[in-house]
Amino acid sequence: FGYGKIILTGEHSVVHGTHAVAAPITLKMKAKVWDHDKGVRLLIPRWGVEQTMEFGADHKYSIYKSLEMILDHLDLRDKSMNIEVFPEVPRAMGMGGSAALAVAIIRALNKHFELGLGDDDVRRLSFESENIVHGGASGIDNTVSTYGNLIMYQKGTPPEMDMINLEESIPIVIGLSGVESMTSKMVKQVREQSESYPKWYKEIFKQMDKLAIESKAAIENRNLQELGMIMNMNHGYLNTLGVSCPEVEELVQIARHNGALGAKLTGGGGGGAMIALCDSEKVQKKIQKEMHQAGYDALIAEIKSNK
């Protein structure tokens, strides 16, 4: 399996070298591999996928190109197998689904063919998959998906990863906009804008970096008021980058008006999901109820430091 994830602070700027803080969620992607008589067959019943791989084809969806790369890297191209995926992470909601999918498949291949891969091997290979899917990944999604820990992350070779310790979990609500989000499109949009206005975007990324670094301290000190303020400010910068949407904005306002300490989009944006920081189960349930009444799906969750 691979963990889904949320980003608390620093999405998009992390692609450009800043820090970000991310946490695993209990929703996972799960996969299994078993022998097949001919070819490689990908099965994702929940998504209506039943496809025999055509190696070298001009794949319409990046998942097939990614899977071809994984099989080539592991020298399994000539093996016949079924790969079945059981998705729990909502598709195209900015919750690390593509990374979790890659991690789950790599681990299933590793187990079935007894390849002897370690977690770091899984992280590196899933990062290559993310680069195919997103056209320039930061590495944060596949790292959280692999290790399942709350971390502060900065891309690099190797990336900088600081584990964040929590004595007590932090309650949140995850609101789903219902608008599918293409992270690759949003990453490309922000990159092009940053190249057109480098001076301004450099300053925005610098401020987002400061917020991410301060959010780590707020989490460790359990200063939820400060963490909420940081999340609200981070959302303001993401709005400036142009990666929000009306549905996410409505969810953010619902959360803030019903007791959230902070609320922001999470992930690539352009739709997808948002997160609301709460200080009690009562506030969580109230926010979830109001989101449901407004026609949105909402999940009660918590941030933890360990698997």
Q: Care to describe what's here?
A:
The protein has 307 residues and is of the alpha+beta class. 43% of the residues lie in helices and 24% in strands. It contains 9 helices and 11 strands. It has helices spanning 62-73, 97-113, 119-134, 140-147, 183-196, 198-220, 224-241, 246-257, 281-293, and strands at residues 2-9, 19-35, 40-44, 49-52, 81-87, 151-154, 160-163, 170-176, 262-266, 273-277, 297-303. Strands 1, 2, 3, 4, 5, 6 and 7 form a 7-stranded mixed β-sheet that branches. Strands 9-10-8-11 form a 4-stranded antiparallel β-sheet. Helix 1 runs parallel beside helix 2 and helix 2 crosses helix 4. The protein starts with a strand and ends with a strand.
Task: Please specify the SSE layout and strand pairing.
Blueprint lengths: L1 E8 L9 E17 L4 E5 L4 E4 L9 H12 L7 E7 L9 H17 L5 H16 L5 H8 L3 E4 L5 E4 L6 E7 L6 H14 L1 H23 L3 H18 L4 H12 L4 E5 L6 E5 L3 H13 L3 E7 L4
Parallel strand pairs: 3-5
Antiparallel strand pairs: 1-2, 2-5, 2-6, 3-4, 6-7, 8-10, 8-11, 9-10
Helix pairs in contact: 1-2, 1-3, 2-3, 2-4, 3-4, 5-6, 6-7
Residue stretches low in confidence (pLDDT < 50, at least 5 long) are none
- Main beta-sheet strand count, sense and barrel state: 7 strands, mixed
Helical fraction equals 40-55%
Oligomer: single chain
Compute the separation of the termini in Å: 13 Å
Strand content: 15-25%
Keywords:
4-stranded antiparallel beta sheet, 307 residues, alpha+beta, single chain
Q: In a few lines, what is going on in this structure?
A:
This protein is an alpha+beta fold. It has helices at residues 62-73, 97-113, 119-134, 140-147, 183-196, 198-220, 224-241, 246-257, 281-293, and strands spanning 2-9, 19-35, 40-44, 49-52, 81-87, 151-154, 160-163, 170-176, 262-266, 273-277, 297-303.
